[in-house]
């Protein structure tokens, strides 16, 4: 696992802000001291603090490391499909299995050797 202190400042490589109503989402690519890149996703929401008498920002942040990108993006896609289509993850997996089984029956396999690629 990547080791670093979350309080340390890390070099920003790339940043993108997406405004969505009262919230702003920040996608920041940073580099650790060991030169590994990782992604932070920050949700920032502006609200008025009656105690302070001024606006404040409530922030929530997640850290994503390269080795987790595939699983994270698969989970995100499934959650979005569920919201858009009302399908459960199990239904989506069954559909994917059926499509995979159908596509396998139409594939033609041939033997390729590394020597043939030169």
Verbal overview:
- 30% of the residues lie in helices and 37% in strands.
- It has a 4-stranded antiparallel sheet with strand order 1-2-3-4, with no helix packed on it.
- The chain is of the alpha+beta class and 118 residues long.
- The chain has 2 helices and 4 strands; from the N terminus they run ββββαα.
- Mean pLDDT is 80; it is low at 1-7.
- It is flat.
- The protein has one domain: Nuclear Transport Factor 2, Chain: A.
Ends: how far apart? Answer: 38 Å
User: Which sequence of strands runs across the widest sheet?
Assistant: 1-2-3-4
Treating each run of at least 4 consecutive H or I residues as one helix, how many helices? 2
Q: Based on helices, strands and strand pairing, what is the structural class?
A: alpha+beta
The CATH architecture term is: Roll
Rg, Cα atoms, Å = 22 Å
CATH class: Alpha Beta
Helix residue percentage: 25-40%
List the domain count as a whole number: 1
**CATH fold field value:** Nuclear Transport Factor 2, Chain: A
**Low-pLDDT segments, ≥5 res:** 1-7
Largest sheet: 4 strands, antiparallel
Shape type: flat
Helix-strand sequence: EEEEHH
Strand-residue proportion: 35-45%
């Amino acid at each position: 696992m990547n080791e670093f202190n979350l309080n340390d400042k890390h070099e920003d490589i790339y940043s993108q802000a997406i405004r969505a109503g009262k919230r702003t989402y920040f996608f920041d690519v940073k580099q650790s001291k060991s030169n590994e890149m990782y992604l932070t996703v920050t949700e920032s929401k502006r609200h008025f603090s009656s105690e302070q008498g001024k606006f404040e920002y409530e922030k929530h942040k997640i850290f994503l490391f390269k080795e987790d990108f595939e699983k994270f993006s698969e989970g995100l896609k499934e959650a979005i499909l569920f919201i858009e289509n009302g399908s459960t993850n199990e239904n989506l997996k069954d559909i994917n299995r059926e499509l995979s089984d159908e596509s396998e029956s139409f594939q033609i396999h041939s033997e390729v050797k590394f020597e043939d690629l030169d």
